Amino acid sequence: MGNEEPVFRVRGFNHVALVCSDMRRTVDFYGGVLGLPLIKTIDLPDGMGQHFFFDAGGGNSLAFFWFPDSPEAAPGVAAPVAVPGFGEWISAIGSLNHVAFDVPADKFEEYRARLKARGVKVAPIVNHDDSETQVAEHMHPGVYVRSFYFQDPDGILLEFACWLREFTPEDVRHAPRTAADRHAPIS
To answer: Which residues form a coiled coil (predicted)?
Structure first.
């Protein structure tokens, strides 16, 4: 894979768009609690709703739609029911399971404490490694990312995560499963 031109020059996410039930509450949470700057607001034509954008850093944005007639939330289908470790977190095909924000490793535990101080319920810290359980009780050189989960006021599953090492070709070693594998026993 030398100096080949990429098929597309993707530079990150322009934005990820979610749907909220209350734009004011969403602005209060993402702008006030998480500190993401609100960078663009749109009232959609013909009373269709609103579309607001927050700066998520690195040229990436997190956007929200507010529709006056959107269907109610469908936890367990369109989104996880709970935070991992506190209940069922599987969601349906085509759903958005969670949004993970990249945070600096040296600020990781401080950021968790800040969220808790602001009244946000946060899950325990998870040290992800390549062990059978994929979780390490204690830090070791094989931990490649640390994270913790929490939810926004609409129950959208969020995560703060920090990479701890660079990936190598050895990190890509699993064959992708297919639709036919969905109901087959996993070996």
So the answer is: none
Residue type (1 letter), 126: V
83-168 adopts what CATH topology? 2,3-Dihydroxybiphenyl 1,2-Dioxygenase; domain 1 (3.10.180)
Considering the chain, tell me which residue range(s) the CATH 3.10.180.10 domain(s) occupy.
1-70, 83-168
Please tell me the CATH code under which domain 1-70 is placed: 3.10.180.10
User: Which amino acid makes up residue 111?
Assistant: Y
46: left (phi over 0), alpha (psi -120 to 50) or beta: left
Q: What is the pLDDT of residue 28?
A: 96
Beta strands in the chain (DSSP E): 15-20, 38-43, 50-57, 60-66, 99-102, 126-128, 135-136, 145-151, 157-163
Q: Would the pTM count as exceeding 0.70?
A: yes
